[in-house]
Each structure stands twice: as C-alpha cells, then as structure tokens.
Amino acid sequence: MPAVIHALTIDVEDYYSIYRRDLFGVEGPPTDAVVRNTNRVLERLARHGVKATFFMLGEVAATFPDLTRKIVAEGHEIGVHGYLHRQVFKLSRDEFRREVGDAKKRIEDAAGVRVEGHRAPAFSIRPDTAWGLEVLAGLGLVYDSSIFPIAGRRYGWPGFAPNIQVMKLPCGVNFIEAPLSTVTILGKALPVCGGGYFRHFPYMITRWAMRHIGKVRPAIVYMHPHELDTTPGPEDFVAALKKAPPPVRRFHRLQMRHRKSFEKKLERLLTDFQFAPLRNVISTVLHRKA
Ligand SMILES: [Zn+2]
Q: For 280, which of 112, 132, 249, 276 could close a Cys bridge (C-beta 3.0–4.6 Å)?
C-alpha cells in the first residue's frame, strides 16, 4: 500500500501586528519578523523537497508582496487567511465578504495566481458562522479548511464529519470542506496535529496521531512561521507587554513556550511523513471517491 500523503498547511501571519491590535488596541503593519520566519520554514521545506499550502493574511501580502511571490515561485500553494485576522463571528456577512475578498485580491495581485483555498482566523467557521461558507463560495473560492470537528472553547463544530467532503450549502452550491485533523483520546477529540499541541507536547504524540489518522485518511497539519521565533520582539511590543495586566502577560508567555524545539520537531515531521499542498490532497481524496 502506498504511503499516505498528508497535507501541510502554514498560516502566514505576523504575531506582533495581530497581538498589538488584539491585546493593546494598537494598529500597525506586519513587522518583517513574518518574512524572516517564513523564510526559515521555506528553507526547511526546500531541504526536504516538501510542498505545502500557505494561507496568507491580506495585510502580509500587501506589505510584503515579494514574500508572496517567493512562496508561489518555490512551488507551494497559496491560500487566503483573511485580511486583518478577524474572527468570522466578529464580522457581519458584508464585512466578512470584504475581509476575504480584499485579501484574496491582494494575494492574487502579488502572486499572479488564482487563490482557491481559505482558512479562517482562529478556525472561526462554527455552526453559528456556517453562512461564511456561502460567502467564500460567492467569492470564487473552491475550498475551505477551517472547521475543527471538536467542542472547543472558542472554536469547533462538534459532530462535523472528519473527512474531506463536498458540502451542499443552503444556497444550493457545492463547496469543499477539508476539516482539521483530530484524534480521540480518552473519549475526547483533540486537535493534536498542529499549533500549540504540536509545540507543547512531545513529538511522539503528533507522530502517533498522524499514523493513526493515516490509516483511514490523510491528516491536515497546521502551523505558523512565528512558532519558531525565539527573539523578544519589537521594542514597543516588549514595552507594552511590561505594562500589560497579568492575564495578557501569561497569554504571551504561553505563546513563547517551547519555540526553541519547534524546528527540530518540524525536521522530524518532514522526515517521518510525506506531504503535499492541501489542494492536491483534496483532489486525490475526492477523485478516489468518484
Ligand atoms: Zn491565524
């Protein structure tokens, strides 16, 4: 039996501009940390000959069009991750349409290719924001990969089928959803294939989960370039943090934890498993079914 080919997805965003906005209410463009960190991920992937999907923020594409072009030139898929990283449940239907439409256009203008896939900031497509899928279809997108079939605190769609699927939307349009992977441990579905789970837990947990999922379907792994950044950040960010209330400082400390071992874990992941861009994985799965 041929080895299963999993999907590697990378959400390209600048940690500092997002959290300046979310934690301190300060607007500002993405910093060049996003370029530095994404380049490190690109180098690692190139060394392993791995192609992935990069879901990019519109503000990053607008500020750093060269980075957008480089990702595509190196053979990766580029998708859209919203413009300013605003969660879908904080937006009206029109605002969401503008947020994704503007970002898609910025990315397509910079990269010179058509964007087909979408990942919502913080996986914010849930039962109460299912209307977002109709907006995405209306913008000419082909698929979404934002749904976590779990009962999470801020995200998740409990009971959502875990496989890549064609959904019939209430408006009658067919649209593809590629839900993020989970495994059930002690009766609870956990999102162990990426993000904080990949960073905070021993690598062997992700490896076990991926082998387990790989018996029935490809896993969809997600990560962020900033997860390998161990530098303290721009001066204004550090200064604002010092004056911030304890819960904000705790949040940031958790975000910074286990970043040193991230690249080593990524290296092992790229050695142990085969990956392809998500659109290729989707097409293999749906083609096989047809
Ligand atoms: Zn994000």
A: 276
